[in-house]
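Subject: design request, 69 residues
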């Protein structure tokens, strides 16, 4: 009986809620990352697009999106 663990002392941690300001900063950071990636995508030529498996139309569709989407 000495090898049994006392589970009565184990408590379940409540779900952590993000501070609203932290969520805003995280969303802004993600938007800036999307904008950076789209600038990189705009610089690719047709061979690079083919390597990625993207068409010119797919690239234009992605470049037309605003940074928050």
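Subject: RE: design request

Done. Sequence follows.
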């Amino acid at each position: 009986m000495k090898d049994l663990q006392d589970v009565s002392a184990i408590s379940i941690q409540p779900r952590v809620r993000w501070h609203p300001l932290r969520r805003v900063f995280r969303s802004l950071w993600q938007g800036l990352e999307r904008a950076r990636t789209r600038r990189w995508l705009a610089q690719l030529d047709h061979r690079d697009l083919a390597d990625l498996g993207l068409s010119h139309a797919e690239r234009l569709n992605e470049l037309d999106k605003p940074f928050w989407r």
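The helical segments are 20-42, 46-52, 56-63.
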